[in-house]
């Protein structure tokens, strides 16, 4: 059961009763998504690029997606967004988040109208943007495609330690192109060692409100 809960910046999140965790930071869902994934990830990796492919781990409510979609449309960047989700939410629950308030109406409707089909077949939302949400676990996910960015947005190591093992991090990183960018809201010694072992250069960046630091890592060429 997921319960809609307000966060400190006024945006909502969901509280997952089974896992015992929120989908986003309780210090601000919108702020966290913008800070970690859009500013430190997408803006960093897409500078001077006309095309970007993103692999997200954990689609959840789609907040990271709608902000990325809006940014790419506004900047005429071709977006190919794939987001692995083991437990997809219903469209009704996603609509209850009220995230439609944070993007133009056309962006919201292109997303929400295509969401159910994106869970089974890649959907072309606009001439520039495609969304695909493989309904599977990260461990079972396989593709020949290589991505420019990974948004690693799994539940925390305290609540879902299997999503932070060295093996699963290496599996996720194997889908990134050389020179590609891995971003996540978390940073631990174990995570830094796991990412470095995959040949990445790591950077500690200031975290979103409520977190001192976050991790950005770039894959060796
Ligand atoms: C922190 S939430 C993601 C929040 C999301 N990015 C958003 O903007 O709403 C973690 C997500 O990972 C999903 N998840 C849990 N176990 C998973 C697994 N083994 N593989 C892929 N996704 C998983 C959960 O269902 C949840 O949607």
UniProtKB/TrEMBL annotation:
Domain annotation MnmC-like methyltransferase: ranges: 142-219
Top-rank taxon: Bacteria
Gene3D superfamilies in the record: Vaccinia Virus protein VP39 (3.40.50.150)
GO-annotated molecular function: oxidoreductase activity, acting on the CH-NH group of donors; tRNA (5-methylaminomethyl-2-thiouridylate)(34)-methyltransferase activity
Keyword annotations: Methyltransferase, Transferase
Gene Ontology BP annotations: methylation
PANTHER family referenced in this protein's UniProt entry, alphabetically: MNMC-LIKE METHYLTRANSFERASE DOMAIN-CONTAINING PROTEIN, SLL0983 PROTEIN
Protein name (Swiss-Prot/TrEMBL): tRNA (5-methylaminomethyl-2-thiouridine)(34)-methyltransferase MnmD
Organism field: Pedobacter roseus
Gene encoding the protein: mnmD
């Amino acid at each position: 059961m997921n319960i809609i809960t307000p966060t400190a910046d006024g945006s909502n999140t969901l509280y997952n009763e089974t896992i015992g965790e929120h989908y986003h930071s309780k210090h601000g869902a919108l702020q966290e998504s913008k800070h970690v994934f859009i500013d430190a990830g997408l803006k960093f990796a897409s500078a001077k690029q006309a095309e970007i492919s993103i692999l997200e781990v954990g689609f959840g409510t789609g907040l990271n997606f709608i902000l990325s979609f809006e940014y790419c449309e506004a900047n005429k960047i071709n977006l190919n967004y794939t987001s692995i989700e083991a437990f997809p939410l219903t469209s009704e629950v996603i609509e209850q988040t009220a995230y439609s308030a944070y993007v133009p109406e056309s962006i919201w409707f292109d997303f929400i109208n295509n969401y159910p089909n994106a869970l089974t077949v890649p959907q072309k939302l606009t001439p520039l943007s495609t969304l695909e949400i493989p309904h599977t676990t990260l461990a079972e996910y396989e593709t020949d495609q290589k991505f420019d960015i990974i948004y690693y947005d799994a539940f925390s190591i305290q609540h879902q330690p299997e999503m932070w093992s060295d093996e699963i991090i290496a599996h996720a990183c194997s889908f990134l192109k050389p020179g590609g960018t891995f971003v996540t809201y978390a940073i631990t010694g174990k995570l830094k060692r796991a990412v470095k072992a995959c040949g990445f250069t790591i950077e500690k960046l200031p975290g979103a409100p409520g977190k001192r630091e976050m991790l950005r890592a770039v894959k060796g060429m």
